[in-house]
Specification:
The complex is a heterodimer of chains A (428) and B (162). Chain A is an alpha/beta fold. Chain A contains 15 helices and 19 strands. Chain A has two domains: 165 residues, Aspartate Aminotransferase, domain 1, CATH 3.90.1150; 256 residues, Type I PLP-dependent aspartate aminotransferase-like (Major domain) (Aspartate Aminotransferase, domain 2, 3-Layer(aba) Sandwich), CATH 3.40.640.10. In chain A, helix 5 packs parallel to helix 6. Chain B has 162 residues and is an alpha+beta fold. In chain B, 35% of the residues lie in helices and 17% in strands. In chain B, strand 2 and strand 3 form a beta hairpin. Classes of the chains: A alpha/beta (428), B alpha+beta (162).
């Protein structure tokens, strides 16, 4: 706590400055860190419930980006001058912050990518194209985001591999018996999302990984919707790869992480060729750099990587357990409110869910829902959420999705519920 | 900015609830499909052209209220008119929706279709309103099994991502 904060906390009636006390978040204090949450939209206070698409950035992360850009910017891993050394140190420090955030064994197991999508594509190119051949099988799930489907279809078209898909039940939960039945002697890889972006289902990835490993099959976990909301421990999960995005984690866009076990990363082929990923180059022979640099060709988004380190610091200070607890309360409250509304159907009712509430309103297309909610200042996502197989499973073209973050309040849930009532009134 | 709530006026809600010319044509000479992969709007349009006259028109599909009402009002507007009149409306509607035609100022033939003027302030919804009109344009240029009309013109191919 700095002096200004101490001074303010002595003013009677002032908001207490401690963001966390006895495991509970002080949400009003936290909201003060997010300048964008003070916006008005359509004359109403912004109610931002599109966090699964992208979360907002707190002032300390914005400040870190500004400090880097104003005092520390140069290209990294190249110059011997002061700024290059400063930037390189900050970039590598950020890598270590992320290593600790996900409890990776070593910092070289943390690769900066442009986001989850690039991380999955890196694994497809680096692992899939090198080790998979015609007839080999990859297991994916119905819940996957398009970014963990399409790269494997590209590999299927190139190599003649087969894609097997784990089905889900009506609640949006993976059928684990069916998952286990999909394994055979040709199974070479599993890709599974940790938390469903469309439905919020938290998948039992640890058990799924153990089952795959018992058959010698490596597993990639798409953690884009998990890393911002629950404590991720890649050693405890024992996953071979774990991918997530910075901008869903209160960090900048254009940055993401691929965690990979060192042994896997070392035997993979590079994804992109260029500067920084080599030890030596001649026209006869190029020697690739060691991990993680082998996978970081060209000048990376240095500012974004450093910003992500600051975002991880911010979340860690709040505590992922406290974040998960508050978001669970929001989800419980929202579920109770919305499930009681006639004509509203919640899509995705898994027993173990993250703070995502997908719903449909009878007789109203989700895009009309989204436009009308926006008139009340409420931002939700409407559409197929880049998960068309999930929509097909429920025989719906789209849903409206409210997705919560730790800075959302019960009052904002009430605004969503009032907005839904208004939609029903307009279409009445 | 116009009050976007005004977009969901009674006339639009009414056409959404009770779409006109909703169904298929037994005598279709031209058909086209319109699809907006971004939001999942999907309509099929059937035309019965005699010479240049639009004798019959019908649409079907799954879409949001803006798209469905636009399709419904479009079919009601062009039925019995000539292809040339419809093409003029297609252009004027598109100009209105994208904001290049101010319906309060310019010379136009849009009539009650001006209820859609508000979409120009909602960029993500412009395509919903325009989709039926793009599909009509594509249908005019379509090849039908029962038609000897001109073949597919690549300049006017069905607008898949309209």
């Amino acid at each position: 706590m700095n002096m200004t904060a101490q001074a303010r906390s002595r003013i009677p009636g002032a908001v207490p400055e401690t963001p966390v006390s006895s495991g509970k978040l002080n949400v009003e204090r936290i909201r003060a860190d997010f300048p964008i949450l003070k916006l008005n939209v359509a004359g109403r206070p912004l109610v931002y419930l599109d966090n699964a698409a992208s979360s907002q950035m707190p002032q300390p992360v914005i400040d870190r980006l500004v400090r880097y850009q104003t005092e520390q910017h140069a290209n990294i891993h190249r110059g011997v001058h002061y700024l290059s050394e400063t930037a390189t140190a900050a970039y590598e420090e950020s890598r270590r912050k992320i290593q600790h955030f996900i409890n990776a064994r070593e910092d070289r197991e943390v690769i900066f990518t442009s986001g989850t999508t690039e991380a999955v594509n890196l694994v497809m190119h680096g692992f899939g194209r090198k080790f998979l051949t015609a007839g080999d099988e990859v297991i994916l799930t119905t819940l996957e985001h398009h970014s963990n489907i399409v790269p494997w279809q590209m590999l299927r078209d190139e190599k003649g591999i087969k894609i097997r898909v784990v089905p889900i039940n009506d609640a949006g939960e993976l059928l684990i018996d069916e998952y286990e039945k999909l394994f055979n002697e040709r199974t070479r890889f599993v890709g599974v999302m940790h938390v469903s972006n469309a439905l919020g289902t938290v998948n039992p990835v640890k058990a799924m990984i153990a089952y795959a490993h018992a058959r010698g099959v490596p597993v990639l976990v798409d953690g884009a919707q998990a890393a911002p909301h629950l404590k991720v421990d890649v050693q405890d999960l024992d996953c071979d790869f774990y991918a997530f995005s910075g901008h869903k984690l209160c960090g900048p866009t254009g940055i993401g992480i691929l965690y990979g076990k060192a042994a896997q990363l070392e035997r993979m082929q590079p994804f992109k060729g260029g500067g920084d990923m080599i030890l030596s180059v001649s026209f006869e022979k190029t020697v690739y750099n060691a991990i993680p640099y082998k996978f970081e060709a060209g000048t990376p988004p240095i500012a974004a990587a450093i910003g992500l380190g600051a975002a991880v610091d911010y979340l860690s200070a709040l505590g992922m357990d406290a974040i998960a607890t508050h978001e669970h309360e929001l989800l419980e409250y929202a579920t109770a409110q919305v499930s009681g509304m006639p004509g509203v159907r919640i899509v995705g009712t898994a027993r173990h869910k993250s703070a995502v509430l997908s719903f449909t309103i009878a007789g109203v297309h989700p895009h009309d829902v989204g436009t009308l909610l926006n008139q009340d200042g409420v931002a939700v996502r409407t559409g197929h959420h880049c998960a068309q197989p999930v929509m097909q499973r429920f025989s719906i073209p789209a849903t409206s999705r409210a997705s919560f973050a730790f800075y959302n309040t019960m009052g904002e849930v009430d605004a969503l519920v009032a907005g839904i009532r208004n939609v029903q009134k307009v279409f009445g | 900015m116009a009050d976007p709530k005004a977009l969901y006026q009674e006339v639009i809600l009414d056409h959404n609830r009770k779409p006109r010319n909703f169904g298929t044509l037994s005598q279709a000479s031209h058909t086209a499909e319109g699809h907006n992969p971004l939001c999942g709007d999907h309509i099929t349009l059937a035309l019965e052209l005699r010479g240049d006259a639009i004798e019959g028109i019908a649409f079907q599909g799954e879409s949001c209220a803006i798209c469905k009402a636009s399709a419904s009002m479009m079919t009601a507007m062009v039925k019995g008119k000539t292809r040339q009149t419809a093409e003029t409306l297609i252009k004027e509607f598109r100009d209105m929706a994208t904001g290049t035609l101010d319906v309060g100022q310019g010379d136009h033939h849009l009539g009650r279709l001006t209820v859609f003027a508000g979409v120009r302030d909602l960029p993500t919804r412009v395509k919903c309103a325009i989709l039926p009109w793009h599909t009509l344009h594509a249908a005019f240029n379509s090849v039908s099994s029962t038609s000897t009309e001109a073949g597919d013109d690549p300049m006017h191919a069905p607008i898949g991502d309209a």
